[in-house]
Design a protein that fits this description.
By secondary structure, the protein is of the alpha+beta class. The protein has 21 helices and 20 strands. The termini are far apart.
Length: 543
């Protein structure tokens, strides 16, 4: 951008806002208490311009044509910090450009992208728009039109020009096999292809739709009609490595591509074996489990926005796998309700066929499965923290952080019929209790877990894991201590060393003082560590 170009621009027509902003221009509301005045700040104008589908905010030039350069010191020498702060506040990525005239007067141009499709940005809770010289709250008609942008179902749109000859015969055969395996209907193997395609809702009187293209299209045809449909896998020796060590692009019909993507990720170098000390065995497990990763990829395919550019990107390393798709969360979904809200995929017809083929158990259940699997496998729960309005970023870590919990849950789930197994909310409640993070506690799950003895409610220490959990602890399996004693030691000592008085208080209704002292001293060296002397003696857990 050059100053000579800016001189000629008109604010409304060219989606630009000029401000002199010589000194002390407010970044976020300033000192005024009047909402109308507070909006006249950097963030307010960025919100309004983004809501107009993007443009520029120019500081250091008069607002009247030919926009004389007056110079601005706003964010001088701090444009990088400015871009970071705007992203933290609004979750959009602006680009700052500094220009200088012949007298070295500085002009700051903030290039502002469009708001996400179907979402209006807000400043201090208000969706703003420019009206004349003021910033006003967006009217109902404008706001509703933005919400309407969210396509009810992209995949059901007709893909003009797509014909039956453009579909992969191999993918159609695979689809038949999967539906037959899932539903057991013999006729699905012999029914004419045109009839099958029609029964699945992949064609209308206007022609084949995008769901047919994504599920069954030949690679070269997908590239022709939907070039942003690729899934790209990048492998790094370490997640901190900037450049990838290997890269593979997949532009396949989904019924073939999902297997090929997993086969690529499941190579020994990319998905190495982890060895876990799970007494009395040393067990070996892959860094990433197939069901979890397939669910994550299918989830990204169903929920991505095909209207926005950008392929699905999978970054995999020994430490983590990150899957990013464009479009942000569907309307009504956010980080706090991702497990509880009833969301629907952006491409519902696509999801319906995937479900009928058994690639997923039930549409909308993918997140539940990923969270449940990671907890049962002793890993950290999946993270969506790096997501924003423009993309969803899912991170799954490979490390087994709690082999004891894994051993317990694997045994517990295997011992129960499917209808009696713990659900994802039960598992998250257990996960939260063990980590003492205070979040993810579901009341309905608490009631069930207490009734089944999986957790106990201690009058002093609150919810704790029950004896069942500690029966699988290596120290109990090695007969160094009983499960009830170890359970009590854990919650007594979880926040640091304690003196003998803490143990006396815990067992005072059950044992004599002498018995308690004897009990504790017998555990020193194997279960407990003893520090200090006399009244200054304290105890901590070994390891």
């Amino acid at each position: 951008m050059e100053l000579s170009q800016l001189n000629k621009l008109r604010e409304r027509e060219d989606h630009v806002e000029f401000k002199e902003a010589k000194h002390n221009y407010p970044f976020s509301g300033g000192s005024s208490s009047d909402p109308k005045e507070r909006r006249k700040c950097i963030l307010g104008y960025i919100v309004a311009i983004a809501n107009e589908k993007g443009g520029m905010l120019v500081l250091g030039m008069a607002d009247k044509i030919p926009h004389e350069v007056v110079g601005s010191d706003f964010a001088e020498g701090k444009t990088g910090q400015l871009e970071d702060e705007i992203y933290k506040r609004l979750y959009i990525r602006v680009h700052c450009e500094e220009l200088f005239d012949e007298n070295m007067k500085r002009v700051l141009v903030i290039h502002i992208p469009s708001r996400p499709i179907g979402k209006a940005l807000r400043f201090e809770g208000v969706p703003l728009m420019r009206v004349g010289e003021s910033l006003r709250e967006m009217d109902d008609q404008e706001y509703f039109s933005i919400l309407q942008e969210q396509d009810p179902d992209f995949s059901v749109r007709t893909c003009n020009g797509l014909t039956m000859d453009d579909l992969s015969e191999e993918a159609i055969v695979r689809m038949r096999e999967l539906i037959h395996s899932k539903r057991g209907k013999e006729d699905v193997l012999t029914i004419p292809t045109e009839q099958l395609i029609s029964d699945l809702g992949l064609v209308s009187p206007e022609g084949l739709n995008y769901a047919a293209l994504i599920l069954l299209g030949k690679p070269e045809i997908i590239g022709k009609y939907l070039p942003q449909n690729k899934v790209i896998v990048e492998y790094r020796i370490s997640e901190n490595q900037i450049r990838y060590s290997a890269r593979q692009e997949f532009c396949e019909p989904l019924f073939l591509g999902i297997d090929k993507i997993w086969e690529y990720i499941n190579q020994d170098a990319i998905n190495p074996i982890i060895h876990i000390d799970s007494y009395p065995q040393l067990i070996s497990v892959p860094s990433y489990s197939e069901e979890t990763i397939r669910e994550a990829i299918l989830n990204a395919i169903q929920h991505r926005s095909y209207q926005m550019g950008g392929d699905i990107l999978i970054k995999v390393s020994p430490e983590s796998i990150e899957i990013s798709n464009s479009g942000g969360f569907p309307y009504g979904v956010n980080l706090s309700n991702i497990l509880t809200v009833n969301s629907s995929p952006r491409s519902r017809r696509l999801a319906e066929v995937i479900e009928k083929a058994g690639l997923i158990e039930r549409s909308g259940q993918g997140v539940d499965i990923m969270f449940a699997n990671c907890i049962i496998e002793g890993r950290s729960i999946p993270s969506y923290d790096a997501s924003d309005d423009f993309q969803v970023n899912l991170r799954i870590e490979s490390k087994i952080v709690d082999a004891h919990l894994r051993n317990y849950l694997m045994t517990l789930m295997a011992s129960r019929l499917p209808v009696d197994r713990l659900n994802v909310f039960d598992l998250i409640t257990i996960y939260s209790i063990i980590r003492k993070d205070g979040t993810g506690i579901f009341d309905r799950s608490i009631q069930r877990l207490v009734e089944e003895g999986i957790i106990v409610n201690h009058p002093v220490y609150g919810y704790q894991m029950g004896n069942q959990f500690f029966e699988h602890h290596p120290k109990v399996l090695k007969n160094l201590v009983d499960s009830d004693t170890l359970r009590r030691l854990y919650y007594i000592l979880e926040d640091g060393p304690k003196s003998m008085s803490s143990f006396l208080e815990e067992w005072e209704q059950e044992l004599t003082i002498k018995q308690i002292r004897t009990k504790i001293e017998k555990l020193v060296g194997t279960v407990l560590m003893k520090n200090g002397k006399g009244r200054g003696t304290t105890y901590t857990l070994v390891n």
